[in-house]
Design goal:
With 110 residues, this protein is mainly alpha-helical. The chain has 5 helices and no strands.
Length: 110
Amino acid sequence: MKRLAEFLLLGAAFLIAVLVPALELARRGVDVLAPLALVLLVAGMLVYLLPALLAGYRNSRHAAWITMANLLLGWTIVGWVICLGWAAYGSVAPEPEGTVPSFKHGLAHR
């Protein structure tokens, strides 16, 4: 259930991060569906949300906090760098007992 809540939070954060700039571009008269504008918008949002995506990928214990800090402070360069460092070097939740080990980090960490 906790993973579902985190997934929904990350999904909502991504939608907000994509819709707000798209609405601003539409307000300024830029055609949002133009191919170059759409590619740049998606690429920019992926870079902006990189700390949140990295925290989710690493199964960080503080993924929700990193996502919220990224959304609120990520527009500043310093806030984005701090969130990226927190996501990259923060603590990772242990795998539950009796599960098959994941191979995304290799067998050396066992």
